Amino acid sequence: MRLTDRVLPWLAGVTVVLMGVGLYLSFFVAPADYQQGETVRIMYIHVPSAWLAMFCYTLIAVSSIGSLIWRHPLADVSAKAAAPIGAAFTLLALVTGSLWGKPMWGTYWVWDARLTSVLILFFLYLGLIAVWQSFEEPSRAGRAAAILAIVGFVNIPIIKFSVDWWNTLHQPASVMRLGRPTIALSLLWPLLVMALGFTCLFIWLHFKAMRTEILKRRVETMIVTRVGQAATLKAAE
Amino acid sequence: MDLGPHAAFIWSAYAVTAVVVAGLVIRAIYEERRQREALLRLEAQGIRRRSDVPGDSGKSA
């Protein structure tokens, strides 16, 4: 808690600066694409959201392994805190992708492998949130959610490689691929700055959510202690 | 700034992102404050966690 007390204000500052610079580069420096025209600007929020949607789920899966094998309470807290944030970024990837798809593909949605697997990711996040809320005891909820998270991780490589394995309307990878990126540098730099800004935002949100979860567990423990003290006093009378 | 014939799609995408990000940030700040206040209220009532009580390691919890 003391470490995050010191880190969080700096992280917030770095996030604001990166987002500000990223937005400036996205709107005033990056040129329009020769095929997509101005709609390429949607990429600067769509791609970082999609990356974070997958990164966040990977973080949950790794935390879940830590929770199941080593029973580390912070791993449990990390997995629970990340789920709503991951759901939000997945929703953003889906919505901004649809808003890009309509002018480019002529439709908001197609049931192709990439779009469908990202929709499944969104449902997995909702499932994790539901599991966490359906158990009163955090340790039992943690175990059930960890198993779901680890099983659901199979969807992450499917999302990543869906554009290679199947014939999809979604374009193949142009940044994270073997060899050098196929995207022009004038479009790549704003994207990388925005991606870094989004990542800092994610870390800030995750730290905040973890602190909240730790505080919540302390409050619950103290309430149980109070109930126990009251019962002891009553028994003594 | 002229964003061409698809400006409405571009602005909508950025507006949705701004709303969701603002929601995440506000929720994060509000929820932490709510839990911190609940903790302070309990401490003001003299309730401590077992691990905070001298002589009680809280291992039995």
Overview of this protein structure:
- The complex is a heterodimer of chains A (237) and B (61).
- With 237 residues, chain A is mainly alpha-helical.
- Chain A has one domain (2-236): Four Helix Bundle (Hemerythrin (Met), subunit A) (Up-down Bundle).
- In chain A, 79% of the residues lie in helices and 0% in strands.
- Chain A is elongated.
- The mean pLDDT of chain A is 91.
- Chain B is an all-alpha fold and 61 residues long.
- Classes of the chains: A mainly alpha (237), B mainly alpha (61).
- The interface between A and B is large, with 38 and 34 residues.
**How many helices of chain B in DSSP terms?**
1
Outline of chain B: rod-shaped
- Tell me the number of strands of chain B: 0
Give, in order, the helices and strands of chain B. H
Helix proportion of residues of chain B, in percent?
55-70%
**So how many helices of chain A?**
7
Assembly state: heterodimer
Computed structural class of chain B: mainly alpha
Described by the principal axes of the CA atoms, the overall outline of chain A is elongated
Q: Mean of residue pLDDT of chain B?
A: 84
Helix and strand run of chain A: HHHHHHH
Q: Mean pLDDT of chain A, nearest integer?
A: 91
Low-confidence stretches of chain B: 57-61
Proportion of residues in helical segments of chain A = over 70%
The residue ranges of chain A in which pLDDT falls below 50 over 5 or more consecutive positions are none
Determine and state the CATH class of chain A. Mainly Alpha
The SS-based structural class of chain A is: mainly alpha
CATH architecture of chain A: Up-down Bundle
Q: Give the C-alpha Rg of chain A.
A: 21 Å
What is Rg of chain B?
Answer: 23 Å
